[in-house]
Amino acid sequence: MHAAVVVAGGRSTRFGERDKAVASLAGTPLIRRVADRLAGPVESLVVNCRPAQRDAIADALADYPRPVTYALDAPDRAGEGPLAGMGAGLRATDAERAFVVACDVPFVDPAFVRYLFDRAAAREAAVPYREGYPEPLHAVYEVEPALDAIERALDGGRRRADAALDALDASAVREAAIGTHAAPGAFTNLNTRAALDAAEDRLRRR
């Protein structure tokens, strides 16, 4: 079984006062757009968020066609960043492998997600690399090895989202493969209100 983990617990400081996860993009909350794109490649969805976000996110995901689990940030890992969020989300699924993604990537490509699951089939992860840098929040992980690597990284004081990658047998998905298998804009993340406005314009032009 394949799952998706959507990491939504960030403070969104560059986005303004409103919670980015439920900000409207052309009338649909960002997290719902991400989740809808994932309904085909996965059988279940896990949302990592802060306790204060849960109700608004649950409203945004009402009637979602896949089972949804909420993985709240653990008190002992509060404030430890996206790596801790990844760990909380992966811990909440019983799937063997999971696609981990941020909540602000509304054009995530379902076909590319399937490709990443295929690339990870005999490995502990499949991680895209763009301009030489990994995209750990747009990657597929074998859950148990990833959890072990994440816990070791956090215990060692490392909090970056890519801190666990060096401990995993990962398939590196390079830019040539990304260009072949991912739709343009699949990695576009909306960190600011300006980026959200640009995405609105993109949708209007379609």
Description of the molecule:
This protein is of the alpha/beta class. It is 33% helix and 21% strand. The strands form 2 sheets. Strands 1, 4, 5, 6, 7, 8, 9 and 10 form an 8-stranded mixed β-sheet that branches. Helix 3 runs antiparallel to helix 5.
What percent of residues adopt helix (DSSP H or I)?
A: 25-40%
**End-to-end gap:** 34 Å
Record field, number of beta strands: 10
Q: SS-based structural class?
A: alpha/beta
Rough shape?
globular
Radius of gyration: 16 Å
Tell me the major beta sheet.
8 strands, mixed
Instruction: Bin the strand percentage.
Output: 15-25%
Number of helices: 7
Average pLDDT over all residues: 92
Residue windows where pLDDT falls under 50 for at least 5 positions? none
Order of helices and strands: EEEHEHEHEHEEEHEHH
List the helices and strands and how they pair.
Elements: E1 2-7, E2 24-25, E3 28-29, H1 30-38, E4 44-49, H2 54-60, E5 68-72, H3 82-91, E6 97-102, H4 110-119, E7 125-130, E8 133-134, E9 138-142, H5 143-155, E10 170-173, H6 175-181, H7 193-205
Parallel strand pairs: 1-4, 1-6, 4-5, 7-10
Antiparallel strand pairs: 2-3, 6-9, 7-8, 7-9
Helix pairs in contact: 3-5
